[in-house]
Amino acid sequence: MNRSPHWYSGVCLTASLAILACGDSTSPTLDVQSVDFQYAGAVSGNFRAVGPATAVDNPESSFAVAFRSAAGETQLCAYQPGRQRLGNFFLLNIGVINGPGNYAVPPGWAPNATSYQPGTFLLGVDASQGSVEQISTFIEGEVEVQELSANHVRGVFTINTHLTAIPEGRFDVPMAALEELPIICQ
Known about the structure:
Layout: H1 7-23, E1 34-41, E2 45-50, E3 63-68, E4 74-81, E5 87-95, E6 101-105, E7 120-125, E8 132-148, E9 152-161, E10 164-176
Parallel strand pairs: 3-10
Antiparallel strand pairs: 1-2, 1-10, 3-4, 4-5, 5-7, 6-8, 7-8, 8-9, 9-10
């Protein structure tokens, strides 16, 4: 077998780059600013919402953000556009949290809260929530927050509702201020 003297260098360089690319667990994932999951049961399908909430009243624009409610709860708000100016909306209330860990869904009432949001998955909703085809309120589940900062939250979740189950959800989204949220999140 006759190989050029540069063959070994090329193989070593390729292998080194592959190891560097795979070995860095601190690098961002490919799904930054997204919420992803499959759901099954009485209703089933795939949900994927991506991007920052830039076009707040545009029912054709997807977004995925997190925010702290007035009661200090960390909530995840995501919208997946669909057909005929309707889409699917996901609001996950993780509760009052201060760092990574496992948290029950729905959380208990937050201290100083004036209302309670257990979390919900709305199917066939318009951007103003004036019309909803299916309402699926969260009855039980768990969220594992893997990373939490003032600017970002990342983790995984499992949720059950009366209509559907979400066995393996993922989120990796920026934190937004309350005034930056689309009306559907408020």
